[in-house]
Design a protein that fits this description.
CATH superfamily: Gcn5-related N-acetyltransferase (GNAT)
Structural class: alpha+beta
Radius of gyration: 15 Å
Helix content: 25-40%
Shape: globular
Number of helices: 7
């Protein structure tokens, strides 16, 4: 596997990765999350044009995973990282997170942030292994608070969620 910036011809593949990876939530009893549509092509194009979309590719240069990030309150915020289940448990997500961390260090960004499910094995427990810590709800920055409010309005708070941070 190798990582690179996403390209326009990758975007349909990224949507397929998201749909397939999302099915893991069905097995966890989170059907609504599993059925959530992937980011639109317009949304993915926005990340691509902002230079905040990366892919991990197989030997044929076909994406097997992707990461998109926003700039929130001066930090790089992982909006989504998804790995096709066929490539699970190969540390591909970690490789993408490290790619983002390198980008952040080069740009002088102080931290990576994200929001995730607290009790889903491949969510908060996974990110803890890679240096992320939970941010107390009372210490959320305005941008993170806004993201959490949007997630709550979408119904994601039916399952415990947390904001996490990894200093760079």
């Amino acid at each position: 596997m190798h990582t690179r910036a996403a390209r326009p011809d990758d975007l349909h593949v990224l949507q397929g990765i998201e749909r397939t990876a999302g099915q893991l939530f069905r097995d966890a009893g989170m059907v609504d999350v599993a059925e959530d549509p992937p980011p639109s092509l317009n949304t993915l194009t926005g990340y691509l044009l902002a230079d905040r979309a990366w892919v991990a590719c197989d030997s044929t240069d076909l994406p097997a995973a992707y990461l998109i990030a926003d700039l929130i309150d001066g930090n790089l915020h992982i909006e989504q990282v998804s790995v096709h289940p066929r490539y699970a448990r190969q540390r591909i997500g970690q490789r993408l997170i490290e790619t983002l961390a390198q980008q952040g260090l080069a740009a002088g960004v102080p931290a990576l942030t994200l929001t995730t499910f607290a009790d889903v094995a491949w969510n908060a427990p996974y990110y803890r292994r890679y240096g992320f810590t939970v941010i107390d709800d009372n210490a959320l920055s305005p941008g993170l608070r806004s993201i959490r409010e949007r997630e709550a309005a979408q119904g994601l708070d039916r399952w415990p969620r947390v904001c996490m941070r990894r200093d760079l």
